[in-house]
Amino acid sequence: MQANQDKNTIREIVSFIKAQENNLRCKLPILAQQNSLGLALLLFSVLGFMTSGILYFYGLIPAWVCIVLGALSTSITHEIEHDLIHMQYFKTNSIMYHLMMFLVWIIRPSTINPWYRKSIHLNHHKTSGTQQDIEERLVGNGTKSHFLRLLVICDGLLGLILRTKQFSKEIKGYNFLRLFNAGFPLTTLYYIIIYAFVLFHGANFILESLAIATDYPAWFMSLVDYMNLAMVVWVAPSFLRSACLNFVTSSMHYYGGVYNLIQQTQVLNHWAFIPFQLFCFNFGNSHTIHHFVPGQPFYIRQMISKKVNAFMQEKGVRFNDLASILAANRFRTSDNL
User: CA-based, 20 to 30 A from 57: which of 11, 237, 243, 265?
Assistant: First the structure.
């Protein structure tokens, strides 16, 4: 009986979302230019990312402003990539499609290449909330240890290395090398820069604290200058964006006790998540809509989210179930609370 009720509720939610989208498209005919809108938004985010880097290079803005502006720009780019995975832009123009896929990766090096991510994201929609959902598990969803979860959210590579034995046992077809190689060369370079930056400046801080003199060769310090520049304009913005997104998405997706679309996600729009939402384009407030209707551009989800969220809440979709985060994201009914 409950299963039939849930199926009816899911149909009602899907119908409501599509109706809201149709109403919006009727009011705004420009939304029919989907390819152009997607490309324009991508170019806008790339321009914002490049501008922040150039302003920092010429000393017009401090490092923290460059990092924040870069992260805000790449948050848009991530949503574009998500739409591309679901074939929302240039479906019949392979050159433009793959060009956009390349652009969304080059300014977001913390993420594996979007062509490989496409396969694990589509698998996410089929297996959300289960052991087989490798996409969400990679970013900490379902992790019981809070320390390990924090590490995974911030450092995906180290988290992958630490959990590869567990993943091999639990996830069908899991292959560490295949996943690791999906980051070459951009994600690989991203982690080389992070580890080199932390190692050099950490060691240098210790040496200076101990009053130990250091005399680095000029060529080495030149490399350090390039590393510092890359860290501010390319690596740190991606680190900030991905850490915020990883925290939000791993918190809003349920893990275990999931049997249908209603139970896969909750809506996170609690005020405490606002700082994180800023750097992942309001993901926690709108992503649940995507699970019910995947084939929808991200900007439409944002525009209809207020009405849709109110409707979903009436229909039993959970909102701000913060206790689930402390319970390794398990979907809990009244019987297992």
Answer: 243
Each residue's pLDDT tens digit, 311-327: 999 999 999 999 999 99
Both structure tokens of 163: 């959990």
278 close to 289: Cβ distance less than 8 angstroms: no
Distances (CA, A) of 45 to 42, 71, 103, 168: 5, 10, 10, 37
CA nearest neighbour of 80 among 121, 40, 124, 125: 40
Q: What are phi and psi of 267, to 5 degrees?
A: -95, 125
pTM, 2 dp = 0.95
Domain count, the chain: 1
Report CA 110 to chain centroid distance, whole Å: 10
Is 143 inside a domain boundary? yes
Within-domain flag for 333: no
**83 and 301 in contact (C-beta within 8 Å)?**
no
Could you tell me if 11 and 311 are in contact, meaning their C-beta atoms sit under 8 angstroms apart?
no
Asked whether residue 227 is domain-assigned, the answer is: yes
Structural domain span for residue 17: 2-326
